Amino acid sequence: MLSAEEKRRRNNERTKLRNKTHPNEGRNIKYKRAYGITVNQYEEFNHAFGGVCHICGNKCASGRRLAVDHSHQSGLIRGLLCINCNKGIGNFKDNKDLLQKAIDYLKFADETEEFVNATFQG
Q1: Helix, strand, coil % over all residues of the chain, rounded to 5
Q2: What is the pLDDT of residue 25?
């Protein structure tokens, strides 16, 4: 009988071998379960939009694949995002009002930057 550690090692070896022989199998399972699409559909979608983030227009700086952005309410796919934009939207909990407040704050900060620096640092 195998110990828990031996089972873990065996399963890791099997996973590595499966990933080498069938590189898209894990992604296919993940995409199908989470988003109802295949890797081929993801690649077609990615290619159709030029392989760049739908918000910032850049490739993922980390070299990772673009994340599938989806509505947590409907489950429908909205687009593909780089890790930074995906985390940004996630940090704001997909809340449009909160995102608008952040935009308003940045605009206000631009307008008051000199005053704030002169008042508090001068």
Answers
A1: 60, 5, 30
A2: 85
